[in-house]
Design a protein that fits this description.
6-stranded mixed β-sheet, 5 helices, 13 strands
Amino acid sequence: MKKFNDITMIEGIGFDSNIYLFDDLIVDTGTGENFEYVLNSIKNAGYNITDDIKRIVNTHCHFDHTGGNRLFSAKIAIHELDAPALENGDNIATAAYMFGKTLEPAKIDFHLKEGDKINDFEVIHTPGHTIGGICLYDGEMLISGDTVFADGGFGRYDICGDLNMLRESIQKLSELDVKYLLPGHGPAVSNGSEHIKLSNRIIKGLW
């Protein structure tokens, strides 16, 4: 585990996404296949899974970020355009089939959109990896899901995604002042703006 200000990062293992804890919520839940590790990490961070975690915020609908939702008794928030994939148990749009899994239909409690506030964070709609991908930004930290990663990386766009949308989303993120980049996979890094600008330069070079 690592701490960035008041945010606890639980590093993903196996196919799991990174998981972020702060206040009364958890951002992404991994596949659910390594739940003992996740549960122990949550306990070590001083959280009670039932009493302290009231909301799940999913950065997008893919199984490696949402498969663990079912293991929490918390309300679920996801962008309104990615919500139907979870509500319908769509194993193509959620990419569950790529992991040899199926995803049961889930109740979505909050349908997020651009500009919504989640505690001190603003929702930024960043389609491209999925149509309803989001990032969370508080003026210093960016929880970026699979839109951008450290060292110039960015999410794939061949699973119900779109390269042009992703290019536009990364351009939008490159205009932010980001101290800490907290991505969906891989390391979290300081000097986040530099990493995002590198991603922006690389994706601009793609057809």
